[in-house]
Amino acid sequence: MLISRFKSVWFSVLLIWAMMIIFSVVPVMAKTVTDLAGRTIKVPDNVGQIIALRGALSIVCYLDLVDRVVGVEHHEAVSNRWVGSQGRPYRMANPQLGNLPVIGSRNKPQPEKIIKLHPDIIFIGSGAVRMAKQLQRQTGIPVVVLDLGDLGAGRKRFLKSLQLVGELCGKEKRANSLTGKIKECLVDLEQRTGGIALGKRKKVYLGGIQFKVAHGILGTSREYPPFQLIHADNVVDALPITKKLVKGRLSIKREIFINLAPEVVFICESGIELVSRELKEPLYRELPAIRAGKVYGLMPHYYATAPATVLAETYYIGKTLYPDRFQDIGIPALSDALYTFFVGCPLYKKMAKIFGGFKPLAELQ
């Protein structure tokens, strides 16, 4: 009888001990949220450890949550230019991320490696709903889809992603500060350029955009947010489009580019070498913008939203097209102020060393 009672007490102690261990390791799913894919997900009340995939790490960094990240994708841990740790502000400002365990690649995260790191939540960037569902099923960890968006048509979804992560991680004040800063800059840009009459808006073109392969001067973009934000007339927006575009990117034919006759040409510096060679060809050399030297370099920013670079670029384009409306703006100083606000340190010189900076093409060659 005594032995039976002893076994019963001992079993109860073991059960309580086991439950304490379980609940100390497995976060309690205390609330339900809707992510940017419209999925309803149960998430922990307190998010301690984070893994962020497919560009979502940028949002985590903007919200000052780097110290909670426990693992990164392979490309975040290498020092390659642009694709690796060099050329993306959120990553350059946080070199310590390169020392974290690698949990797979951008397209193939490895569930077993993620599980070993015990994250409370996984954030995943745009266009990965199927991956999010699969990863949540494989790991048992809540996976929240965000939208990296842009500062144009996708701005609301990007800002909503900032607010959602801020809410889940106790960073509401920082999220409000970020969204407030973006809105403040957009209002300022509108006040500077919103009154420009349609007939006086500069005709502009963006070349050198790379997607899948290098397209040179003919690789361009429709509905380009920095052009839209300062009311520049993107000549590509008037072209008929017969297929769905990814982020507005497309490649046009030579004769179309020539006939568009932009007044000012901007070049994405990720494709600057190819474009520089192309513009020396007689076919392009006689274009008014090329002949007048109205060709300018822009630093790339199409991996994650990169609000600091996008806003700095927009002010640079505005100052280039309408210098009288941006007389008070110094681009390097403004760029560093934006980088400091969004990622914690001035980066313009380092970015310019990698890509060239916001300069006329003549100064980049």
- Cα distance spanning the termini: 92 Å
Give the strand tally. Answer: 12
The count of domains is 2
Radius of gyration of CA atoms, rounded to a whole number: 24 Å
Overall spatial form? globular
CATH architecture of the largest domain: 3-Layer(aba) Sandwich
Please report which band the strand proportion falls in: under 5%, 5-15%, 15-25%, 25-35%, 35-45% or over 45%. 5-15%
Total helical elements: 16
CATH fold category name of the largest domain: Rossmann fold
What is the structural class? alpha/beta
Helix fraction, binned, reads: 40-55%
Average residue-wise pLDDT: 89
What is the helix/strand order? HEEEHEHHEHEHHEEHEEHEHHHEHHHH
| CATH H level, superfamily name of the largest domain | Nitrogenase molybdenum iron protein domain
Which CATH class of the largest domain applies here? Alpha Beta
